[in-house]
Design brief:
Length: about 170
């Protein structure tokens, strides 16, 4: 069963059905930890920790020397940190990938809807252009009226010319 929520990665395993809240909390922890490991503050604190560790174990500050020069215990701590950091970072990346997939699907849906809306509006504009093209414009009506007026004036001129050609006895 696929889980579409943004906060949960991938699929649920069958034997852990009741642990959704814990998975989500652990996922948020992994993302926070991975985000913090990528900051200059983390690097600065790690550098201070290593310098203090080496200083105490080389000089024997306060009479302490629990990890002599090859610093085997420090290497063990770094190995342990790396063995936990890598899976946490991968978990955070997987959760981000799942969120990206959901966003991409939403973007595609929105793009398809926008495309459908634009196609509809293009058809509507084309229909309006056709309707306006079929309508008589003001200039067209004026030109038609002018033509009719000219035809009427020409007809009147012909009638007057005919009347002038008639003799006075024909007029009675």
């Amino acid at each position: 069963m696929a889980d579409d929520r943004l906060s949960l990665p991938g699929r649920q395993s069958r034997w852990r059905r009741g642990t959704d809240q814990d998975r989500d909390a652990f996922g948020r922890f992994a993302e926070t930890f991975a985000r913090w490991m990528g900051t200059p503050a983390f690097l600065a604190w790690m550098t201070v920790f290593v310098i203090v560790w080496c200083t105490i174990n080389v000089i024997g500050l306060f009479g302490l020397k629990w990890d002599p020069y090859p610093f085997i215990l420090l290497n063990l701590f770094f190995s342990t940190q790396a063995s936990y950091s890598a899976p946490l970072i991968l978990l955070a990346e997987n959760r981000q990938t799942d969120r990206d997939h959901v966003r991409l699907a939403e973007d595609r849906r929105q793009t398809a809807q926008s495309r459908a809306d634009m196609d509809f509006l293009a058809r509507e504009i084309a229909a309006l252009r056709d309707a306006v093209g079929d309508m008589a414009t003001r200039d067209y009506i004026r030109s038609e009226l002018r033509n009719e007026l000219r035809a009427l004036l020409a007809e009147l001129d012909d009638e007057r010319a005919d009347e002038d050609e008639r003799t006075p006895s024909d007029r009675l």
